[in-house]
Amino acid sequence: MSLMNAARKILLALAVPVLLVAGWWLATAGSASFFWPPLGQILTAFADTWFSARFVTDVLPSLGRLLAGYLGAVVLGVALGTAIGSSRTLRGLLEPVLEFFRAIPSPVLVPILMLFAGIGDGMKILVIVSGCVWPVLLNTVEGVRALDEVLGDTARSYRMRRHSRLIHLVLPGAGPQIAAGARQALSIGIILMVISEMFAASNGLGFTIIQFQRSFAIPQMWSGIILLGLVGIVLSMAFRAVEARLLRWYTGLRTAQREG
Amino acid sequence: MIKPRAALSAAVLLLALTACGGGQSAAPEPGSSASGALNPVKVSVIPILDVAPIYLGEQQGFFAAEGLKLEIVTAQGGAAIVPAVVSGQVDVGFSNFTSLILARSKGLPIKVVAPGVASTGVAGKDFGGVVVKAGSPIKSAADLAGKKVAVNTLNNINDTTVRASIRAAGGDAKNVSFTELAFPDMLAALDKGNVDAVQVVEPFLATAVKNGDRVVASNYVDTAPGLAIAGYFTSQQTAAGKADLIKRFTAAMLKSLRYATDNPDAVRQVLLKYTKIDAALTGSLTLPTFPTEVDRASLETLAKLATQDGLVESSPDLTELLP
């Protein structure tokens, strides 16, 4: 029965993508339009373009910067968010400022970041951090603030140390919220990975796609866009796996509550 | 999350939209000539020094005299202009010739209809060049080998001509590492030492010289005498379907280019209208030449450089591209 269920789930998940790909294939099969090449041509270009040295010279550097920026943003966001969420004074002081900075789109900061951080990988990682940190930070603040007060009082009356309170109560308690913020940050990270490579770049996935566009290598450009989408899927699956592991207690609790 | 599902559905949607756009552009323009009014001609340009003649020509009424109502559509980069021309959203576009050679080599049906801008041909007194900091050990183009040089677009006219410049000076052009930077960001990057040299055009060249930076190479001059840099082009479809409109555009454009050549002060004045160039700087700019013929030899040189540097596999048929 559960096998049947699993098969059904997979079928359901694949139905729409398969339909869309089939639709795309049929719609472009005889396309003579330069900017809308047949999907078959795009897929051939995909294999030629990305299963080559380009994977090492362009895709890996991009992913490296994305991971560095993303992890940096998560660590920074959780650290600051926990501090701000736990202190009423800090919250009152910083919340308006945070909203202000959050509202600034990171792409407009690029020219300024370039003045501070140069034009190398550091600048691109900073661009990613500057955009990804906000959902993590703000969700952490909310998560920490919304902790069950009774639990907090209990921990205090048992004289749990600050450190163990943080590890055993605050972070797990805010965990689901932090995870929600981190998931949001991941998609922002992919977007900023591409945008950061539009400035002062000499390698990277986003950079390569723009190069293809400028040199009118249209099937290759499309293949890069598809690759970006695939990167998004793989990263979101990896994220879910990590999340399921870290928040096992929470999903278990939710399931139990729903069944009870 | 960018999922392929979303990407695909967006693609399908876009496909539907462009399909409509294509149909629209193929339809004849109703009533434009029947009313006896001016025929609209849409021209897409990047608002830079190079296109001053078209703004001057509009001011002087050269386009109206040909029965044209000029509609200038500004684009941020040349990359957006080619698709707009090919899809028929605009009638004419402005682009550098290396880009057009690239497009033509990929089979895009485009055709040059008017010259645009060319190098002055005078080393050290051109409208574009390679600039280093005053104290830099780089003395000539040959010294650029092994250095980090910023260009505004990689794999295009500026890096190929800088390489040509290095080769002409006897340096090793393979060894240069190019980085892409927008012109407005270049001088700051040079100043901070993020790059060793920058390839700039006016007005950034005049700004650099004013700041005490040193011009080490005039890459367009070193490439070929009076190198043609850019021009106006249309699609084969528009050229065939609106032959008369394009003919009148070319006539008005040639008049404008001639006027710009004869009235450099008017060029400097009109810049203030469509660019954000500092008024104090316009007097010290080196203006390019505004030729009245498309120089085939220049395009041959650029095509050779594009092939040599691996931008294209083989040079396209230039006769197809030229008017």
By CATH, the architecture of the largest domain in chain B is named 3-Layer(aba) Sandwich
Percent of residues in helices of chain B comes to 40-55%
**In CATH terms, what is the fold-level topology of the largest domain in chain B?**
D-Maltodextrin-Binding Protein, domain 2
The share of residues in extended strands of chain B comes to: 15-25%
Query: Mean pLDDT of chain B, nearest integer?
Result: 84
CATH fold description of chain A: MetI-like fold
The string of secondary-structure elements of chain B, in order, is HEHHEHEHEEEHEHEHEHEHHHHH
Query: What is the string of SSEs of chain A from the N terminus onward?
Result: HHHHHHHHHHH
Signal peptide (chain B): 1-21
Domain Solute-binding protein family 3/N-terminal (chain B): 40-260
Family (chain B): Belongs to the bacterial solute-binding protein SsuA/TauA family.
Keywords (chain B): Signal
How is this structure best described in words?
Chain A is built from 11 helices and no strands. With 260 residues, chain A is an all-alpha fold. Chain A is flat. Chain A has one domain: MetI-like (MetI-like fold, Orthogonal Bundle). In chain A, helix 3 (53-86) runs parallel beside helix 6. Chain A has helices at residues 2-28, 39-50, 53-86, 88-102, 106-117, 121-145, 149-157, 162-196, 205-214, 218-246, 248-259. The longest helix of chain A is centred in the last third of the chain and has 35 residues, at 162-196. In chain A, 85% of the residues lie in helices and 0% in strands. Chain B has 323 residues and is of the alpha/beta class. Chain B has 2 domains: 39-119 and 227-321, Periplasmic binding protein-like II (D-Maltodextrin-Binding Protein, domain 2), CATH 3.40.190.10; 128-223, 3-Layer(aba) Sandwich (D-Maltodextrin-Binding Protein, domain 2), CATH 3.40.190. Chain B is 44% helix and 18% strand. In chain B, the strands form 2 sheets. Chain B has a 5-stranded mixed beta sheet with strand order 2-1-3-10-4, sandwiched between helices. In chain B, helix 6 (157-168) links the parallel strand 6 (148-151) and strand 7 (177-180). In chain B, helix 2 (52-60) packs across helix 11, helix 2 (52-60) crosses helix 12 and helix 5 crosses helix 13. The longest helix of chain B has 23 residues, at 4-26. Chain A: Belongs to the binding-protein-dependent transport system permease family. Chain A: Residues 59-243 form the ABC transmembrane type-1 domain. Chain A: This is ABC-type nitrate/sulfonate/bicarbonate transport system, permease component. Chain A: It is found in: Cell membrane. Chain A: The chain crosses the membrane at residues 67-85, 97-119, 188-210, 222-242.
